[in-house]
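ok new one. same drill as before - structure tokens go in, u give me an amino acid for every spot. 399 of them this time. try not to just spam alanines like last time pls lmao
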């Protein structure tokens, strides 16, 4: 332990702390040095997805080499306070090495010293750490006085291990998933892949239609399309579009930073459901991640209660013995009273606004989907055999 330039005790000997000393290109060079890098720690995600926030960057170096790093999103009201938000950080797995717990502790101490103690902000962290690996991290956060936010549900997902060869990966799929992939490969689907804007925009359109069909609104995928346009060429996302009978029917978009690929967008039209297009696209995306150095594929969130069909689909892709991964959740410092009151009031207003938009959207959907009452259908025994055959072809696979 020693005392750094900020006057705080840290646990990483012979290290130095740099704050706001890198530009955009320098930050991407630092990201390249971490196995746990992710899109939420990129400069362009912060600038575009959180427009209106300032970007701040903290780097822990040992012998001149980054051993921990974190991007912080700041929203401040001068003279009052504000929020310092960390999305899926700090990064503390230097590429090709074991996770550096000492560097993580140094980064956590420095975050609290800089953003809470010196700048007077409420510090909120969403660490990219699973509960299975998070006992030491949770203890470290507690030692800094950071409390777990019970009202924020932790991130929950399935992760596919990509260490086997292609044949091994295929044999590890669940029986149902492998059968669905076999069907998709017989249906004459053409897969178009790339990173250009037109391809991602086509998938955005499919996503909008999928949300309308299912009656929900999760997020605006077009934000990630704008982020992709800004990302450096070798860090752009990869899009996979399924074409059937000359029409786009499904799409998947993935990102790869560090050694974990992540699904960023996935959507399927009804025509794509009938030919199992999602199975083929996810398989192609998985193989692309592996071919480009990925060791894992994060399937981007699951919820067995609210979306059971997609839950089962992702569970089958995760393998024959899938383990549901749960992050440790959201933590925050109490922060100075002005910052706490400012953040709480802003979030309360946003919750009410979101609730109103959700209710208004549901009403619009009901009006859009309203149909006049239909006459009673013919008894089953009088139904035309051709109609019965059509009804028997239930769509397979999730959106």
């Amino acid at each position: 332990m020693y005392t750094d330039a900020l006057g705080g005790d840290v646990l990483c000997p012979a290290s130095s702390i740099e704050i706001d000393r890198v530009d955009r290109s320098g930050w991407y060079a630092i990201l390249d040095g971490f196995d746990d890098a992710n899109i939420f720690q990129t400069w362009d995600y912060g600038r575009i997805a959180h427009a209106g926030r300032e970007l701040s960057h903290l780097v822990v170096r040992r012998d001149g080499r980054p051993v921990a790093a974190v991007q912080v999103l700041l929203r401040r009201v001068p003279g009052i306070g504000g929020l310092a938000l960390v999305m899926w950080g700090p990064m503390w797995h230097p590429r090709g090495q074991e996770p550096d717990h000492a560097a993580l502790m140094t980064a956590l101490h420095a975050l609290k010293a800089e953003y809470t103690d010196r700048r007077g902000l409420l510090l909120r962290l969403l660490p990219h750490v699973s509960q299975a690996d998070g006992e030491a991290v949770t203890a470290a956060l507690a030692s800094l006085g950071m409390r777990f936010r019970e009202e924020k549900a932790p991130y929950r997902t399935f992760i596919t291990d990509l260490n086997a060869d292609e044949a091994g990966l295929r044999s590890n799929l669940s029986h149902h998933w492998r059968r669905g992939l076999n069907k998709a490969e017989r249906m004459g689907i053409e897969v178009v892949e790339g990173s250009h804007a037109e391809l991602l925009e086509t998938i955005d359109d499919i996503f909008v239609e999928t949300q309308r069909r299912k009656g929900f609104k999760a997020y605006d995928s077009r934000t990630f399309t704008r982020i992709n346009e800004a990302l450096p060429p070798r860090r752009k996302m990869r899009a996979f579009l399924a074409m059937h009978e000359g029409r786009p029917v499904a799409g998947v978009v993935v990102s790869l930073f560090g050694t974990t690929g992540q699904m960023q967008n996935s959507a399927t039209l009804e025509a794509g459901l009938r030919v199992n297009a999602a199975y083929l696209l996810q398989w192609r995306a998985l193989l692309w991640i592996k071919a480009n150095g990925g060791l894992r594929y994060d399937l981007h969130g699951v919820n067995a209660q609210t979306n059971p069909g997609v839950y089962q689909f992702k569970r089958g892709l995760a393998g024959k013995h899938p383990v549901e991964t749960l992050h440790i959740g959201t933590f925050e410092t109490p922060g100075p009273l002005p910052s706490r009151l400012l953040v709480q009031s802003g979030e309360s207003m946003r919750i009410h606004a979101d609730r109103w938009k959700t209710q208004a959207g549901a009403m619009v959907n009901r009006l859009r989907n309203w149909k006049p009452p239909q006459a009673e259908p013919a008894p089953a025994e009088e139904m035309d055999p051709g109609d019965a055959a059509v009804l028997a072809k239930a769509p397979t696979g999730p959106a």
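Confidence is low (pLDDT under 50) at residues 1-10, 377-399. and btw The chain has two domains: 2-148, 157-326.
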